[in-house]
Amino acid sequence: GAVVSQHPSRVICKSGTSVKIECRSLDFQATTMFWYRQFPKQSLMLMATSNEGSKATYEQGVEKDKFLINHASLTLSTLTVTSAHPEDSSFYICSARADSRGAFFGQGTRLTVV
Amino acid sequence: AQTVTQSQPEMSVQEAETVTLSCTYDTSESDYYLFWYKQPPSRQMILVIRQEAYKQQNATENRFSVNFQKAAKSFSLKISDSQLGDAAMYFCAYRLIYNFNKFYFGSGTKLNVKP
């Protein structure tokens, strides 16, 4: 149990367009999901915490208007990178809280903005 | 502030041998979890082992074990009988027991396994 699926695993988009990344908890309900960004050869940096039915909490320095997070149901959170630019190219990872078992990670999304 | 430090950016081990990855952390809290995650080339984060700070006994999962020294704020991971599939980035992480909202990750250690 505790499977988190992230889609797409890889996406290439043109500069100025928006791209949506989905994070789904497949076999449990997740009231809280987390979005991370990982630069090459670096650690995971928390971007925001997403709570079902309420606004996401963003970490300092993360632009909420650029990285839109929607946690519309107990099994789905989405991250939309708006007006993407090449500097937004990165690896994005979500994780979902599975009650007392902790948080489980999706397989990540590699975003390339050209 | 909570910080997690991994001082070894990269390590190598011969297949079937034992390797220890180091991790130290800084916190003023007493109730927390410590984790080791593995990130293979697929980039999927995989939980390797978890330690509750209130437990004195070191956690063990098959070939993986930890040396948890709470007073020294040290949490090392020992991999015994290393296998080629163990090659990956390993991240040490910390979280408060009562606060799911933040994991603090170390910078990672890349483990190479030589055949």
Structure description:
The complex is a heterodimer of chains A (114) and B (115). Chain A has 114 residues and is mostly beta strands. In chain A, 0% of the residues lie in helices and 54% in strands. Chain A has no helices and eleven strands. In chain A, strands 2, 4, 5, 6, 9, 10 and 11 form a seven-stranded mixed sheet that branches. A four-stranded antiparallel sheet of chain A has the order 1-3-8-7, with no helix packed on it. The relative contact order of chain A is 0.33. Chain B has 115 residues and is mainly beta. Helices cover 0% and strands 52% of the residues of chain B. Chain B has strands at residues 3-5, 10-14, 19-21, 24-26, 32-39, 46-52, 60-61, 64-69, 74-79, 88-96, 104-105, 109-114. In chain B, strands 2, 5, 6, 10, 11 and 12 form a six-stranded mixed sheet that branches. A four-stranded antiparallel sheet of chain B has the order 3-9-8-7, with no helix packed on it. A two-stranded antiparallel sheet of chain B has the order 1-4. The relative contact order of chain B is 0.34. The chains are: A mainly beta (114), B mainly beta (115). The interface between A and B is medium-sized, with 22 and 19 residues.
Q: Please trace the helix and strand order of chain B, writing H or E for each element.
A: EEEEEEEEEEEE
How many DSSP E strands of chain B?
A: 12
Q: Helical content of chain B, roughly?
A: under 10%
- Count of distinct strands of chain A: 11
Beta-strand content bin of chain A? over 45%
For the termini of chain A, the CA-CA separation is: 37 Å
Oligomer: heterodimer
C-alpha end-to-end distance of chain B: 41 Å
What portion of residues of chain A is helical?
under 10%
Alpha plus pi helix count of chain B: 0
Summarize the biggest pleated sheet of chain A: 7 strands, mixed
Our Rg estimate of chain B from Cα atoms comes to 14 Å
Shape of chain B: globular
